[in-house]
Amino acid sequence: MKKSDIVNLKNVTREDIPRLIDWLDDKDVYENWFGKYTYNEPAHLGYEPKNMLNATEEEWNEVFHDPHHEPHRSIFSIYLNDLHIGEAQLSIDESLGDAQLSVLIGDKSVWHSGYGTEAALALLEHSFINLGMYRAWVDIPEFNKNAVTLFEKIGFVHEGTFRKSRPRNGKRFNSVVMGILIDEYSSKYPDGISSHVIEWDGQKP
Which of 88, 85, 89, 87 is nearest to 108 (CA)? Predict the structure, then answer.
């Protein structure tokens, strides 16, 4: 792994939000993320990006730094050196030791370059090493073959199917549920990984 291939996951800044909004206006991007809501707006987990453009400090902190939400959601910006290329999220259920991962590479100029893989690995390391989770999982629309292959490659296994859970172009599609356990992660990555979460919930490690 070259230094230029390493990504870092950081706290979301106000400067990141307009880029995220632009990405979600692109059909190629939103269809491989979470599609559209029934009212025809691009879907986004955890918060509405357009509402954050003029958010007060209290509103901002409630979305990005509130530890009391259950399940707790950690939201990161993905950076390649100084270039903001995407967003990553963890939905954490501490009572189950369980974290759901979401990765969006919004900058299409860097698609298929391995950065989604690096961001997913950084989320895994953060979940298992920093947060002490037992299981991590993803929910991927069946038509996103690249994402399914990505998570298979890094050690996730098929656990089940959410039937007809994803709308697309007037039709409904299944979602693939895939997961990995901490012992499987430790066995596959005994020497650790190259990309990391370097800030979270207002804190630095």
Answer: 85
Reference 139, options 166, 164, 114, 176; nearest CA is: 176
Q: What is the dihedral of CA 88, 119, 166, 178, to 10 degrees?
A: -120
Q: Compute how many other C-beta atoms are within 10 angstroms of the C-beta atom of residue 141.
A: 22
pLDDT digits (tens, 9 = 90+) for 12-65: 999 999 999 999 989 888 877 766 665 567 778 888 999 999 999 999 998 988
- Output the pTM of the full model: 0.91
Distances (CA, A) of 190 to 130, 184, 186, 197: 16, 10, 5, 18
Take residue 122 and report the two structure tokens written for it.
């950084």
Give pLDDT tens digits for 182-200: 999 999 999 999 999 998 8
